[in-house]
Amino acid sequence: MAESSKQSQSKPVSQSYWSLVWWKFKKNKLAIAGGVILFLMYFSFVAIPEVVAPYALERRSEYTEARPQTLRFVDQEGNFRLRPFVYGLERKIDLAARRRSYVEDPSRVYDVYLFTKGDPYRLFGLIPMDIHLYGVKSDDPAASVFIMGTDSLGRDYFSRIMYGGRLSLMIGLIGQFLTLVIGSIAGAISGYYGGTVDLVVQRVTEFLAAFPDIPLFMALAAAIPVFWSPIAVYFMLTIILAFVRWGGLARQVRGLILSLREREYVLAAKSFGAGDSRLMFRHLLPGTMSHVIVIATLAIPSMILSETALSWLGLGLRPPLTSWGVLLQEAMTVYAIRFAPWLLWTVPFLLIVILAYNMLGDGLRDALDPYGAR
To answer: What architecture (CATH level 2) is domain 161-367?
Structure first.
């Protein structure tokens, strides 16, 4: 009796749809890992890249195309040090190959500190600060720490990856949001009205799906005036990506609307005098949101890859803007791959984002069908 009374007094478990979705989602460890990775990357690359990067975006040094410096805990004599350090760089000229290189100079030791003062910046564009996640403290003006090397102008490559990630990741989010809005509205109108409206919308989506991506990107990118500011080019590229990608989502939303528009709750709302816009956007579209969320999550990596490919081909963002595609464009020559392979550091970050989105999207796809097989 005591045990049964305790059970009756225990807190009831919610069986609402979203409670079941969360219960199923948190059981998927890969999806949780993907969500955590994406949160950390967006926080680091989009919110506070100025803090994580040790140098300003355009900060130049005398070390052009210097290889990455190794973080060490054991010095040349074999002594262990609690604080990590790097050796200074010394320039060497190879007369036979007619190229310069940099080698470590053990006589110059620079300790690496966390949260050091460096180049000034404005956090969130408002708060003046000069604290960076890591850096060196030394009176030597040549003191530096390049954990991912430098580019052809002597700029720290890790700092450029951090700043470039802000544009690439934001284009993925903003572009997919515009795609979601256009595709959902067009699909809802097509599925609800049918007839001529449905015919026109579906022919447009078929045209976009049938047209090759690269020629279409080239034609649209060529329409961007060369005298536009970098910010205008950024927003126009986002609109172009959304314009090209909305067709697939519209077709899927149309199919869902066709299956929902004859449901009892929709007919009841219509019998009470609800207008077309209320039926579409208050009763029908919310029923497609679980599917749309999954599609949007899985499509964001494609949007990021499209921006990267366009910028790599020289059709997207252009300097002085910095994105992962712009950075890869600098590494597209045989010379860079042969003598400066660290310029390909952008690729692992791109792969991590894509894998994290895929893990999160797969988990959401399973969780948003909580009544399916477990």
So the answer is: Orthogonal Bundle (1.10)
- Cis peptide bond upstream of 320, omega within 30: yes
Cα-based distances in Å from 302 to 61, 79, 170: 35, 49, 13
- How far apart CA 159 and CA 369 sit, in angstroms, is 41
Using alpha carbons, select from 270, 242, 274, 246 the residue that is nearest to residue 188. Answer: 246
Sheet order of strands, 127-136 included: 72-74, 80-94, 99-123, 127-136
Q: Are 283 and 266 in contact (CB under 8 A)?
A: yes
Task: Single out the residue of 285, 117, 80, 116 nearest to residue 192, CA to CA.
Answer: 285
Sorted by sequence, the CB contacts under 8 Å of residue 142 that are 6+ apart come out as 62, 88, 89, 108
Are 182 and 246 within 8 A, CB to CB? yes
> What is the chain's alpha carbon radius of gyration, rounded to the nearest angstrom?
27
Q: Cα–Cα distances in Å, from 365 out to 50, 178, 254, 255, 357?
A: 35, 21, 19, 18, 12
Q: Which residues are CB-neighbours of 346 under 8 A, at least 6 positions away?
A: 161, 164, 324, 327, 328, 331
> What residues does CATH 1.10.3720.10 cover in the chain?
161-367
Q: Which H helix or E strand runs over 119?
A: strand 99-123
Name the pLDDT band for 10 (thresholds 50, 70, 90).
Answer: low
Question: Is the pLDDT reported for residue 146 higher than 50?
Answer: yes
Q: Which of 28-37, 212-221, 284-293 has the lowest mean pLDDT?
A: 212-221
Report pLDDT for 1. Answer: 43
Interatomic CA distance for residues 178 and 182, integer angstroms: 6
Q: What local confidence, expressed as pLDDT, does residue 156 receive?
A: 92
Phi, psi of 99 (to 5 degrees): -150, 155
Three-class DSSP category at 43 = helix
Q: Round to whole Å and give the CA distance between 231 and 320.
A: 10
What values do phi and psi take at 123, rounded to 5? -70, 130
Contact 216, 153 (CB under 8 A): no
Helix pair angle (289-312, 230-260), 10° resolution: 150
